[in-house]
Amino acid sequence: MGNQKIIIYQIFTRLFGNRTNVCKQNGTIAENGCGKMNFFTDDVLRQIRSKGYTHVWYTGVIRHATATDYSSYGIPRQHPAIVKGKAGSPYAITDYYDIDPDIAENVDKRMDEFLKLVDNSHRNDLKVIMDFVPNHVARQYKSIAKGKGVRDLGEDDDKTKAFDANNNFYYCVNTPFSPNIDLYGGEAQPYSEFPAKATGNDQFCASPSCNDWYETVKLNYGVDYCDAGGRSEHFDPIPNTWHKMLDILLYWASKGVDGFRCDMAEMVSTAFWHWAIEQVKKVHPAMIFIAEVYNPWEYKHYVEAGFDYLYDKVGMYDTMRGVICGNCPTSQITTAWQWVDNISNHMLYFLENHDEQRIASDYFAGDGFRAYPALAVNMLMRSNPFMVYAGQEYGERGMDSEGFSGKDGRTTIFDYWTVPSLHRALVAKKSTADEHKLSTMYDRILSIASTEKAVGEGQFFDLMYVNEHIAQKQYAFIRKADNEMLLVVANFANEAVSVKVNIPEHAFNFLGIPKSDILGTDMVRQSTVKANFKTDDFVDVEIGANDCKIIKFNLKMDSDITFNEHNKEEYPPAHTAEHLLNQTMVRMFGCKRSDNAHIERKKSKITFIIDHKPSRKEEKAIEDRMNELIDADLPVRYEVVDRDNLPKEVDANRLPADVSEKVRLVYIGDYDVCPCIGKHVRSTSQIGRFVMLGTNWDEMKHAFRIRFKIV
Fold first, then answer.
1. pTM, rounded to two decimals
2. Fewest Cβ atoms nearer than 10 Å: which of 21, 197, 399, 449?
């Protein structure tokens, strides 16, 4: 993926593709249904990739504690007293070597289904991230899928010792497990554990409360937390748990995953991470490690231990939440990035994840649109990764009371449920008007973030130190790579504003901005903007409420652009469909774009040279794929470049001999780019419906002609 910005789509696998829409509180899997891995067809994965996402984090795929009985498949049953919710927490792992049966269509083939999911994701140019939960496991952990010769966690522990460097767990010697919960959980016999093991959130006693992680047990990495002299480390020789956890990492790496999101990584010593990550990367050098770390004072240590990326929760997330809700000024965004500027490329930005409240919930902003300027800022301001939690792009409210997870503004991770906005978008195909509008706005920012060189690898210049007049509700910065510059101004206010954004002399010198009149393109609204850098060092910017302005400047561009003459009067929907059809045929048949097309309002025809006559099934696939792309509502944007500076996707040999010095490129999402100066729609949903009227095949020329119309 080169220098393309990493954009992660977090999918809670159990909920994402759930076709059932019953939503009975505390419902079983039979009542409420469950998403399956086979929901991720090529069409679903292509749609995710086309939006600009590079990685998918399939959350909750390792087998974990659940109240659902799978004992008929040889899977040990869990006592419901130590399972949170009917579905259970995906972070109470019961077998590190197994796939969760809930998300398999065929339970006996669950690993095969996972491997197919990984392969399908890769085939659609998506890298796969999965959870690694190093700090704790379910209380009844027992592996049935471990390899030959692998000893189970705790199997060889000396339970007469509270701590031993070679034990996998910590023990409350000679003391039964007696938490402040109902130990029956509806069963005839209570759950019993003797001696009690320490609980996952560092409760080294036999009686954790109902607010503790009572369903989990803490893993022992050779740290004695109850040593008389305080915490002591016993890392020589290498503790037994280190070897077992490294084996688990290498096991999943061998399955083809591309990265691990390491749950509560800061609860495990950096010494282990340094050792384990180094071992994994010797075998899999491209593997990425993402740490869930909340203590900013420890960030540097986890980067030094080998982590590629760290959650920037306490800094950037908390700041953005405050700005969105009007509790702190936008100037604090500058403080947030400056705090970690020396490791900025290692910070993972996000506005939602499975632990946090939904933006649109009553507990956060109450409206997904209010976070749109924050999305633009965090997605575009640096080259570090950004993550979107599935449903966020539709303004999911998270205001259900699902069962174990009450009404708290979060999407449940404990219950069988359906995410309303995702069900409407992915299953019913009937998003509300607001959901459709917000997802389109997300697509535009995703497209810019995933395709613009200035975002993927450019320099960042914060403009707030010379723009104190906007430091309460607006935020402005510049990104620049080579001769391309983006000016981004976000408005967090609930009303439209007109502001003058100062560009300091230092920016001109540091970034090499010419002192001249420069034409720019409003990348969202596709209008032309002129900056008078000859006479003024500011740009007049008008921005709507909770909106952003993204202006792209080509710093080599002359003030007057001359294109080739173009006298055709296109019908924008059909002309945009022509671009989509060209790319679709290239991808499906490996052919070149068409040189022979007649595009009109009533009906159009276009010819391709391909290696065989398509079957009726293939013809139907062309039509279906076109309408999928139209329904995906991909944003259409353009940019002007020098003819000698075309992207690699554009074949310069196909340009006319008399092509202008400047070439206008038309982008359709992340799906297609083509030189063109004709008229187009603003997003693909405005095309209408693609209807194939008929085809002709010329065997001598291998010419396949498609006749179509736009309804």
1. 0.84
2. 21
